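dumping this here so i dont lose it
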């Protein structure tokens, strides 16, 4: 936490934000709510283990923002300790905007959505690129995933918080929908086979 921050939520609730909150009547409620969490607990760990997609925000030294999507198999975000997350950064379009931003401004932000359960988690912190640790990169690479790992991104959490589900549309991954439909179709086929067998059985057997 920065020396200028009295509490962890000050990472987002700047004096300007607090002034607006006071003017619009929400400042006291947020002040009474208390501090935001700064360490990874079991609830956050379980949430991240099911995460296969999130948005990663950085900014240049002069504050120009940039948001990029990051994805992979569920669990591709790894927990190194109670404050640190890490993931393999795959080769992409080679614009290197995120890396350039982090080279001059380490502040970063992760926005993680779970559309199926209408949940979202916001994480503030600082990030850095690690290019010279092949062992770490290999340990973070999901087994069997077809992507070319280029480097590692480490994210040290300053604060994290959750949002209410209001206005989050409920969406489901295609793979989860396909699995549910396959299970339904298998059950339908099983019931149809049972019905067909009953129709072929003698009347005396049907009544037993």
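and the seq i came up w/
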């Amino acid at each position: 936490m920065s020396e200028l921050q009295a509490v962890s939520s000050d990472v987002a609730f700047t004096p300007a934000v607090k002034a607006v909150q006071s003017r619009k009547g929400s400042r006291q409620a947020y002040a009474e709510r208390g501090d935001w969490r700064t360490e990874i607990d079991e609830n956050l760990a379980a949430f991240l283990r099911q995460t296969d997609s999130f948005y990663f925000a950085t900014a240049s030294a002069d504050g120009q923002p940039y948001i990029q999507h990051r994805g992979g198999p569920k669990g591709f975000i790894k927990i190194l300790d109670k404050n640190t997350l890490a993931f393999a950064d795959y080769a992409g379009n080679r614009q290197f905007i995120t890396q350039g931003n982090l080279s001059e401004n380490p502040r970063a932000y992760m926005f993680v959505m779970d559309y199926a359960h209408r949940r979202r988690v916001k994480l503030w912190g600082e990030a850095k690129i690690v290019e010279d640790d092949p062992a770490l990169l290999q340990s973070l690479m999901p087994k069997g995933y077809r992507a070319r790992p280029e480097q590692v991104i480490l994210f040290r959490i300053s604060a994290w918080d959750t949002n209410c589900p209001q206005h989050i549309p409920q969406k489901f991954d295609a793979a989860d929908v396909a699995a549910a439909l396959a299970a339904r179709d298998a059950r339908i086929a099983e019931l149809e086979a049972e019905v067909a067998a009953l129709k072929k059985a003698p009347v005396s057997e049907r009544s037993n």
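Residues 35 and 76 are 28 Å apart (CA to CA).
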